[in-house]
MFS transporter (Catenulispora subtropica), 513 residues
Amino acid sequence: MSAVAESAAPAVSGGRTVNRGAALALLAVTQFVLVLDAGIVGVALPSLVKGLGFAQNDLSWVTNAYTLMFGGFLLLGGRLADYFGRRRMFMGGLILFSVASLVGSLSPSPGWLIGARAIQGFAAAVVSPAALSLLLISFPDNTDAEKAERNKALGVWGAVAGAGGAVGLILGGMLTDWFGWEACFWVNVPIGVAAALVAPRVLPVGAPSGPRTGFDLAGAFTVTAGLASVVFVLVNAQKVGWTSPETLGLGAVGVALLVAFVVVEARTRMPLVPLSIFRRPVLRGANVASVLQVMGLMPAFFFMTLYTQQVLGYSPLKSGLSLVPIALAIVVAATVAGQLVAKVGIKATTIGGMVVMAAGLLWASGMPADGSYVTDLLLPQVVIGLGAGHAWVALTIAGTAGASEEESGLASGLLNTSQQVGGALGLAILAAVASARTSHLFGTGDNPAQALSGGFGTALLVGAGLGVLAAVATVFLLPGKNAMPAVDEHAIELAEETDHIAILPVGDAVPAK
């Protein structure tokens, strides 16, 4: 964490002196908590079947409720941060997230827990873009030295997110085994409340920016409802069928709402998302590449978790421990990625990271029913994590390249939305692939372990293909180093990444052993 000390020099934002080291520490701790919560919940899900009486088919909604609210409200959350103030929304979102976590720990029934997870998702959609925007404000990029400090801050942010994923996996197994699933929800309550109380002392105000002459309610409604509808279709299609009237009808409604959103934004005087922002090739390329990367990467956590517990027979704690290497590899990659971007550029770093990630997914796709942990899980995880960490940081930098302070919340919301949609879409596709392959292997006489591992491996193989596709998209969509604007940066949850373990539906998407 030396970068925190190096960044401790005060900066001035809006006439207020900001201790950048303290601001980065608080924002990183907040990201840590959000990612920690995701990892904990992912490991604890199987215990909810017995502990709270969840039906297997309903268990997926513990994560799906979070996905729908987080993905659906991210753009609105980013714009609210710009409109009402970043620090104010950051603090309010943290308090709401903590309250929802407490309610979740006290839930008397599955419906209560699903509702609490939905509120957590909404709160995260408020906190995430506000936190990233505050990071940008705390670390301006007016000089070369400031740009270097900003890249170091992003490296710390990514490293802490990876550490939160690792700790969440371990802590989730420990708390579930020792105290029950409830402990996995209340553990982050005191941290979230403390962070909200400390925020006024160390964070810049992040005052509202731009004219406050109105709010684009029509745009907010159409984009939120449209994205929520599309994400719901993606995570629910496995249950009701891709060609069912429910899927086709709600999918058509979602698409129509998104088309209406574009029409509204083109005509309103104060749009929620000014369409002119998509004229920037770096922002466009970063968002497209992020969607493809997350489509290939996020489902890997889901399938490796199922593989360790359903095929290899690991306990929740052992399963969590077995997946720590990928989170630690991301920590290492994120720590040095900012320096690599400064040397070779965003485009080269992204392409290299994508290719390495795809190689790791290809390696992991060979997982056998009687697999060896070292060769079939440990080493592939390290390769996946190193590649994904470099590409992720590079794309988060590109995602806000050239964005002004007034647009920082919007840019972060766009990138996070791309990741959420990519995660939901990727899991929906790869779960369908895994399910079809598993069913086929069952039909040909393979035993359950062989059929499950074959389905999981096939899904990871498709994920590797998506990683290659992301690299190809980067080649064509991101400009070269000399054409890249001044490197802004901006941080993703890999928490969405590992936090995005929380967006991976768990339930009957893949046949249980």
Observations:
- The two ends are 43 Å apart (CA to CA).
